[in-house]
Automatic annotation (TrEMBL):
Signal sequence segment: none
Protein name: Structural maintenance of chromosomes protein 5
Biased composition (Acidic residues): 40-51, 64-81
Source organism of this protein record: Naganishia liquefaciens
Family statement drawn from the similarity comment of this UniProt entry: Belongs to the SMC family. SMC5 subfamily.
Superkingdom classification of source: Eukaryota
Molecular function in Gene Ontology: ATP hydrolysis activity; single-stranded DNA binding
Region (Disordered) residue spans: 1-84, 370-389
GO cellular component, as recorded: nucleus; Smc5-Smc6 complex
Sorted UniProt keywords: Coiled coil
């Protein structure tokens, strides 16, 4: 049960809550990336836009770099150099002065802290002092919790603390929500700032309140940054879990942290300006050099092209003259062609008139011819109509003749039937007599009916014999099916045995599989292995096939690692003496082709007996290698011939390659590299959550590698490269599967036993089949005899039944013949039918006569029209005789007309083409030249040949000039244009270089002086502090020229007389030495600090009492000065007789399950102090 205590004095805070336990926070882990300055909180919510972000002062990126030049004259001082009398002007030392209120608190310092359900506290509220605050209390009571509260309450991320990564982990166990409330001292004349942060266990969200009003994390970050609070800076705020990180800070980070925490406020701004401006200056200088080089190159090229351009213009003048003359030539040619065209047109018009006159004379004859032609056309049309009429009449006659002929045939048929009536009657009488005779015979057969015989007993005997026979046949068929099944089963057993035998042979012959796989992967290797086997007699010793065939991996789970370690050495043939090596290389020297295309190319090497016997040592003992997480050297897992092993050791370096099936988190990579290996191979992180996947040897494996390359020169520095590969073993994963061999042998034994049993069953079935065969034959013979007896009885009955049916049929046929009509009735009917046919024939003959008369009339009309057409044709022939005479003359005139027209039109096209060409050429001329030439060609009387001579002379003159491409003048113009641009660019870059150079120089002068002064002061204070403890130390500024980003700060210390000053690192010094050095350095910065408060948490860990006392005295002396800011020193214990100051506050933490209230007043601090004073007064 938690009991609240009454409020205590401000210097002694009261607190209640449970004890701090390991479960209150997750396990502490050291951040990998060093300390974090102003890192944004990952816990920010929609209401909380983030924790403290990097707040960069003006000029960080160079935007306000120019403003840094405008320094007030009061910021500088002048000093005369004693040696040369020169006046040196330098920046005055900046004295940091904090804004302190009337109550002693500086702006931004912590006035009050209030926590609720935070880590170990249920509820606490206390007010720290204005200067040194020494917070003491036993371990686990919550001292470091106050550090966490300050960090998180002012907006920084939990990662700054190096504890739990999520803010929800800082909610007290058993509670759902927590909050921190921190009151910061306001600037003079302004109220204090109260920042409250609420958060819960379930999510990362935070609710921010500023002076009682809801706000965002970003606004809080801006206010905290405005006060200059630097919780992310290890030089100003050093939590317990970050003490070791201070020594791990690289020198560049230490310089940045020192500049931010102490010295001139402009140091960080100047440094950032120098980093950015110097980088830009280098870029501009490089660009300026490039542009100047280009300017010189352009000037040279312009000078080289000047002569070519002069020749070009002279040539262009001659070409212009040629063009003018060619235009004159085209115009002259056009005018000549125009005159010729006019002459041809006149000739064409003359022939046209003669043709028209001839046509006028021939018109009367043509009119007669046209009239007769129309008359003939009318008669021809009438002739066609008459022909159609006549054809239709002939068609009707043909149809009528057919009908008449048909009717005549019907009449003749009836007459023939009348003549055959007597013969038909005689045949009918003969048929009747025959049927009567047959009926008498059938009646006699029916009267002799066979006696009825009962075949029931015979049927029973037949059925019994049949059933017995069928039973035996079914048994026989069953035996046949058994035999067939036995045969199939035997065949299957034999096939399975053959298959198992083949599988055993294939499994146990891994070498053959490897050879086949290598042949598929490399056709040359496949050819070479086959050739070596066929020519084995040519070698003195065995040729060792490549490692892909001859190496067996002792543990299959290492197959992928070992094969990857072999790399390109998998396909190298090994000869064991020089003669064999020479014979083997004939494969490369001679013309051997694979598949008729690819030439054989193989890798070969000679391994001598000396190589085999030489034992190259491993770089480190296996025990040392295994301690780093690696499981051994790759060569340890290779079973192969000695020559191949020597090759893998001396050439492939497998004794220098370490391998492991473990993942990266189980590998100490640095320790493995220190074993001297050149390559590390281990399982990728892919198998961290699924280790069983590594055992799937058929699947590709994810393998991580680290290659170590040691320089052969100088300090033999190591160069390490890492990589991850997805690798699939193609050869080494093919090993003998003993379990499968055992399983196949068991299957083979089972099949052999099955075959033995099957043979016994076949023997028994054969005996049974032989025993039943005589009985089956006896039953078949009995059944045949019984069926024969029955068939005789059944045949007699069938003949009797057939006679009865035939008798009935004969009676029906006889009755049909007797019922036929008499011959006289039939004769009367046929004569009547004959008379009807005769009358129809007469009528059809009359109609046929009428049709013939009509056809004759149409034929007469057709003949008359044909005669008239013949007369018209005679008239037209007479007219044609006259027309042909005119036509001959007309043809001659038409030919002359067409020739003259064609000549004119052809010349017109030529003239038009010439006009078009001339027009096009003239249109290309400018207006002035066109006007000039127009005046010339009006008076130019030269012929085309004369103009050609002028053109040819100009061309000869051009041939005497060197040919210059138009690109020369284009290049010259382009070079001139580019030169103007480059000159302007050079001018601009010079201005930029000069301006940035001035900025860098001025900023460097300011930065270097101020930084040197800061480092000198800090080094002096730091060295003095260490000297008081019989140690030595200094702070050294490392300058790297204009590479300001790599300027650094090194802390050098020595703790023993026999050693030199050494740089402080996380590895070189002990924990106590690092803690002592750290607090001494931070104390040295305190006097120059610009932050409103600083904090160190349990810095005395690992120190002896003497060092701890010195540190305490140094802190009291520095932090209790009048100009010192607020300081928090957190420690679990205090030495006796320490130095104290009136300006320091001691805050004792009382925390536990309860505080007793009894007569001893153990929880009354004031009472305890009063008792101590009374005891001291009595003494």
């Amino acid at each position: 049960m938690v009991r609240k205590r009454k409020s205590q004095p401000e210097s002694l805070p009261s607190a209640s809550g449970g004890e701090e336990s390991d479960s209150a926070l997750p396990a502490r882990k050291r951040p990998r990336n060093g300390h974090v300055i102003g890192q944004a909180d990952e816990d920010a919510s929609d209401e909380d836009t983030g924790e403290l972000a990097d707040v960069k002062p003006e000029g960080v990126n160079g935007e306000n770099a120019d403003d840094s030049e405008a320094e007030q004259e009061d910021d500088y001082e002048e000093e005369r150099n004693e040696e040369g009398g020169e006046i040196i002007r330098r920046k005055k030392r900046v004295t940091v002065k904090l804004e302190r209120g009337a109550d002693g608190y500086v702006a931004g310092s912590i006035v009050r802290i209030k926590l609720d359900n935070f880590v170990t506290y249920d509820h606490v509220e206390f007010r720290p002092g204005a200067q040194l605050n020494m917070i003491i209390g036993p371990n686990g009571t919550g001292k470091s919790t106050i550090v966490c509260a300050i960090t998180l309450g002012l907006g920084w991320s939990p990662k700054v603390l190096g504890r739990a990564p999520e803010i929800s982990a800082f909610v007290k166990q058993g509670c759902k929500r927590a909050y921190t409330e921190i009151e910061l001292k306001g600037r003079p004349g302004k109220a204090n700032v109260i920042i409250k942060r609420e958060f819960n266990r379930d999510d990362k969200k935070s609710i921010w309140t500023l002076n009682g009003e809801r706000t965002t994390g970003q606004k809080v970050s801006n206010i905290v940054s405005d006060f200059g609070i630097q919780i992310g800076n290890l030089c100003a705020f050093l939590p317990q879990d970050k003490v070791a990180e201070f020594a791990q800070m690289n020198p560049r980070e230490l310089l940045k942290a020192t500049m931010e925490a102490a010295g001139d406020p402009n140091l960080t701004t100047w440094h950032n300006t120098l980093v950015n401006s110097a980088g830009r200056l280098e870029i501009y200088q490089h660009e300026l050099q490039t542009q100047q080089s280009r300017q010189q190159d352009l000037n040279r090229r312009i000078e080289d092209l000047s002569e070519d351009v002069e020749n070009y213009f002279q040539r262009q003048g001659l070409l212009a003259k040629i063009k003018e003359e060619e235009v004159m030539k085209l115009v002259r040619d056009f005018r000549v062609k125009t005159a010729e065209k006019s002459k041809l047109k006149a000739t064409w018009k003359r022939y046209q008139r003669q043709y028209q006159e001839h046509i006028s004379k021939a018109e009367p004859c043509l009119e007669v011819k046209n009239r007769e032609s129309k008359k003939k056309a009318r008669m021809t049309s009438h002739q066609d109509e008459l022909r159609a009429k006549h054809k239709k009449a002939l068609s009707a006659i043909e149809q009528m003749s057919g009908r008449l002929e048909k009717k005549s045939l019907e009449t003749e048929d009836t007459s023939e039937k009348l003549g055959n009536l007597r013969q038909a009657e005689a045949e009918r009488k003969q048929q009747i007599a025959g049927y009567r005779t047959n009926i008498e015979k059938l009646k006699e057969a029916i009267e002799n009916r066979p006696a009825d015989v009962d075949t029931t007993q015979l049927d029973k005997e037949i059925n019994t014999a049949r059933q017995k026979r069928r039973g035996l046949q079914e048994e026989q068929k069953a035996l046949d099916r058994k035999f067939q099944a036995y045969n199939e089963k035997g065949t299957q057993i034999n096939n399975n045995l053959d298959q198992i035998q083949n599988q055993l042979a294939a499994i146990q012959n891994i070498r053959s599989q490897r050879i086949a796989a290598l042949g598929r992967a490399n056709a040359s290797c496949g050819f070479a292995m086959n050739w070596i086997q066929q020519n084995a007699n040519k070698f003195r010793q065995e040729i060792i096939f490549p490692a892909a065939v001859s190496v067996q991996v002792s543990d299959p789970s290492f197959a992928h690692l070992v094969e990857l370690a072999c790399g390109n050495n998998l396909m190298t043939f090994v000869a064991q003496n020089e003669d064999d090596y020479r014979v083997l290389n004939t494969l490369n020297d001679q013309q051997h082709f694979v598949n008729g295309r690819q030439r054989v190319r193989i890798n070969t090497i000679q391994i001598t007996q000396e190589d085999i016997q030489s034992d190259t040592p491993y770089p480190a003992p296996r025990e040392q290698l295994e301690a780093s997480g690696m499981e051994g050297y790759a060569l340890d897992f290779c079973d192969c011939p000695p020559a191949m092993r020597a090759f893998l050791r001396n050439s492939a370096g497998l004794h220098m390659t370490a391998i492991s099936r473990e993942t990266g988190d189980a590998i100490d990579e640095k320790a493995a590299q220190n074993c001297g290996v050149t390559r590390l191979l281990w399982a990728g992180d892919h198998y961290k959550n699924n280790p069983a996947a590594w055992d799937d040897m058929r699947a590709p494996h994810f393998i991580e590698s680290s290659n170590v390359r040691i320089s052969r020169y100088g300090s033999r520095a190591k160069q390490i490269t890492s990589n991850q590969a997805r690798f699939e073993a193609k050869f080494f994963n093919q090993n003998v599967d003993e379990e499968q061999v055992e399983r196949l042998n068991r299957q083979r034994a089972d099949l052999a036993e099955q075959r033995t049993q099957l043979e016994a069953e076949i023997q028994r079935a054969s005996l049974s089949a032989k025993a039943s065969k005589p009985e089956l034959e006896k039953l078949q013979k009995l059944e045949e005899e019984l069926n024969a007896r029955k068939n005789v009885i059944v045949a007699d009955l069938k003949r009797f039944e057939r006679a009865k049916m035939e008798l009935q049929k004969a009676k029906l046929q006889l009755e049909s013949l007797l019922n036929r009509p008499s011959i006289e009735a039939e004769r009367t009917r046929l004569k009547a039918e004959q008379m009807v046919h005769v009358k129809e024939r007469v009528r059809l003959a009359q109609e046929l006569t009428s049709l013939c008369l009509h056809a004759n009339k149409a034929a007469a009309e057709l003949v008359e029209v044909q005669m008239q057409i013949m007369q018209v044709d005679a008239n037209m022939d007479a007219v044609d005789e006259h027309v042909r005479g005119f036509a001959a003359q007309q043809e001659e005139l038409e030919a002359d007309l067409e020739r003259s027209k064609a000549a004119y039109q052809n010349h017109r096209r030529i003239t038009e083409a010439a006009a078009a060409v001339a027009t096009d050429q003239v249109s290309t001329l400018d207006d002035d030249l066109r006007a000039e030439l127009s005046a010339k060609w009006e008076h130019d009387e030269r012929s085309v040949d004369e103009i050609d001579q002028v053109i040819q002379q100009a061309r000869n003159d051009i041939d005497l000039l060197p040919e210059v491409n138009r690109s020369a003048i284009d290049r010259l113009e382009r070079y001139k244009s580019e030169l103007a641009v480059v000159q302007q660019s050079v001018k601009k870059h010079k201005i930029k270089v000069d301006k940035l150079g001035n900025i860098v120089k001025k900023t460097h002068d300011q930065f270097d002086v101020a930084l040197t002064e800061l480092v000198t002061l800090v080094s002096a204070k730091f060295g003095a502090a260490l000297q008081r403890n019989n140690c030595a130390g200094e702070v050294r500024l490392v300058r790297t020229g204009e590479d300001y980003a790599n300027w650094a700060l090194e802390i050098l210390v020595k703790f023993r007389d026999a050693e030199d000053l050494q740089v402080l690192t996380a590895q070189r010094q002990s924990g106590g030495e690092r803690s002592f050095t750290t607090i001494m350095y931070l104390t040295s910065l305190t006097e120059l600090s610009r932050v409103p408060f600083s904090l160190v948490d349990e810095i005395n860990q690992g120190m002896d009492q003497r060092a701890e006392r010195l540190v305490h005295d140094q802190l009291v002396q520095v932090t209790c000065r009048e100009d010192a800011g607020q300081y928090f020193l957190i420690t679990p214990k205090l030495l006796t007789n320490l130095r104290y100051d009136k300006k320091m506050s001691v805050l004792c933490i009382y925390n536990g399950e309860y505080l007793p209230e009894n007569e001893y007043k153990l929880g009354d601090v004031k009472g305890l102090l009063a008792n101590i004073r009374a005891i001291m007064a009595e003494a």
